[in-house]
């Protein structure tokens, strides 16, 4: 979007007026999750968007950005990656909240071309993520990201983008009381100037890990019929982004043998996709029963592909030579069956849930993984790096800064589209 900036007098009334305009406009449109208003062949139908944005690092001066660029109605997940030298949103190595395994800059990754890409929908413009505007929309609220380590990737990206816009970094604090990050705990970052927090709740299955006591032994199970015990940590949040997918594999679930439990019954054998559907339905019932739709916006983030070549994660597969995205669509993976299951469940829900279908757009980004730079390479020789490449690489998670920044760009665009956070108490 091409923006022109002007001073805003009486910013509260301007913000309320902007909200009224956006509500009136979107009330006349059919609501399509993940899409933006289409253009018309008639130039008279050109729409002017007004964005309330807060430029720079100051929290004391409000500014309005007006855009005369039309925002088109389209599928924002259908597009291509284009070069953008204004990226990344924050310098590599600058954010203290990045897990060392995702911190490719500090771990010595020598190239940075993978940082300079922007997702561009076909026939569509989405706003760049204005961190200060996002924080203003979050004022007095909680945004919680719930799920596995890929959602932790997304959470770390978001808190780093937002933190970079704050001049006084001491006004950003970890309030979860953790001295160091772990994969599946609870973490909360508070932005004091906005009285808001962005939290992560580790819950790789969303449903509950348990144990079953038989006559002869006790063994670990997964309760497909119960949500995990962490739900009180996010039930009353203002925005929740869920995911679950990557743990639904054989080596995480005892190959489905005597692992999946419903009530007092443990399935001797259950196919992975069937178990996944049962868990999703449990999650959907919980959301429909417990989420206040007048307060909370719910998102479900889609599956993202891994990019191992010449083997798998434990058989010498790697991605350490990848420095550019995939450009030939024929080389993309098939659409994951797990996401078809998600789509089916979402269609039956009473609660509006926005499906962030990022599977395909992320599949292009084979260049974005930590690979051997999951650990520090500072004092290793080329031979040592080659030896490590043969042993174990991370082609599942993502470097930060990196591709998850674009996932958050889409999250911001979806909230921006509906005027979320403007004038809300």
3D structure, described in words:
- The protein has 425 residues and is of the alpha/beta class.
- The chain has one domain.
- Helix content is 23%, strand content 19%.
- It contains 8 helices and 16 strands.
- A 7-stranded mixed beta sheet has the order 7-8-9-6-12-15-16, covered by helices on one side. A 4-stranded mixed beta sheet has the order 10-11-13-14.
- The two termini are 28 Å apart.
Summarize the topology.
Blueprint: E1 3-7, H1 11-27, E2 49-53, E3 63-67, E4 79-83, E5 117-121, H2 131-137, E6 142-147, H3 149-164, E7 172-174, E8 186-191, E9 196-202, E10 207-213, E11 218-227, E12 239-242, E13 260-262, E14 265-266, H4 272-290, E15 297-301, H5 337-347, E16 353-356, H6 359-363, H7 382-391, H8 404-417
Helix pairs in contact: 2-3, 3-8, 4-5
Subcellular location: Membrane
Domain Trichome birefringence-like C-terminal: 126-413
Membrane topology: Single-pass membrane protein
Helix run count: 8
Structural class: alpha/beta
Give the SSE string.
EHEEEEHEHEEEEEEEEHEHEHHH
Question: How can the largest sheet be summarized?
Answer: 7 strands, mixed
* pLDDT < 50 stretches: 1-72
As a percent range, the share of helical residues equals 10-25%
How would you sum up the global shape?
globular
Beta-strand content estimate: 15-25%
Count of strand segments: 16
Terminal Cα separation, in Å? 28 Å
- Average pLDDT confidence is 83
Compute the CA-based radius of gyration. Answer: 22 Å
What is the number of domains?
Answer: 1
Instruction: Record the strand order, biggest sheet.
Output: 7-8-9-6-12-15-16
């Amino acid at each position: 979007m091409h923006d022109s900036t002007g001073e805003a007098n009486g910013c509260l009334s301007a913000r309320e007026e902007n909200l009224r305009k956006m509500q009136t406009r979107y009330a006349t449109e059919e609501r399509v999750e993940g899409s933006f208003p289409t253009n018309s062949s008639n130039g008279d139908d050109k729409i002017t968007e007004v964005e309330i944005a807060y430029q720079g690092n100051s929290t004391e001066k409000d500014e309005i950005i007006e855009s005369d660029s039309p925002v088109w109605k389209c599928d924002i997940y259908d597009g291509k990656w284009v070069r953008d030298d204004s990226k990344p949103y924050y310098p590599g190595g600058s954010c203290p909240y990045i897990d060392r395994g995702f911190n490719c800059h500090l771990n010595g990754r020598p190239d940075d071309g993978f940082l300079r890409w922007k997702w561009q929908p076909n026939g569509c413009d989405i706003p760049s993520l204005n961190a200060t505007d996002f924080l203003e929309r979050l004022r007095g609220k909680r945004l919680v990201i719930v799920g596995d380590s890929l959602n932790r990737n997304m959470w770390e990206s978001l808190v780093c983008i937002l933190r970079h816009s704050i001049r006084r970094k001491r006004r950003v604090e970890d309030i979860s009381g953790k001295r160091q990050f772990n994969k599946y705990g609870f973490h909360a970052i508070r932005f004091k100037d906005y009285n808001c927090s962005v939290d992560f709740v580790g819950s790789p299955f969303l449903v509950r890990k348990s144990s079953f006591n038989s006559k002869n032994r006790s063994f670990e199970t997964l309760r497909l019929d119960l949500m995990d015990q962490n739900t009180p940590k996010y039930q009353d949040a203002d925005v929740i982004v869920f995911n679950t997918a990557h743990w639904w594999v054989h080596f995480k679930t005892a190959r489905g043998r005597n692992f999946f439990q419903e009530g007092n019954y443990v399935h001797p054998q259950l196919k992975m996709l069937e178990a996944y559907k049962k868990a999703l339905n449990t999650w959907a019932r919980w959301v429909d029963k417990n989420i206040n739709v007048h307060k909370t916006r719910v998102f479900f983030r889609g599956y993202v592909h891994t990019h191992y070549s010449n083997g798998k994660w434990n058989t010498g597969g790697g991605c350490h030579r990848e420095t550019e995205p995939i450009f030939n669509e024929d080389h993309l993976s098939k659409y994951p069956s797990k996401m078809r299951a998600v789509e089916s469940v979402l269609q039956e829900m009473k609660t509006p849930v926005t499906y962030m279908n990022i599977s395909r757009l992320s599949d292009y980004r084979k260049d974005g993984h930590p690979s051997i730079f999951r650990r520090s390479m500072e004092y290793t020789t080329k031979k040592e790096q080659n030896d490590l490449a043969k042993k174990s690489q991370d082609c599942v998670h993502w470097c930060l800064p990196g591709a998850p920044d674009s996932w958050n760009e889409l999250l911001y665009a979806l909230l921006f589209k509906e005027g979320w956070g403007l004038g809300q108490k």
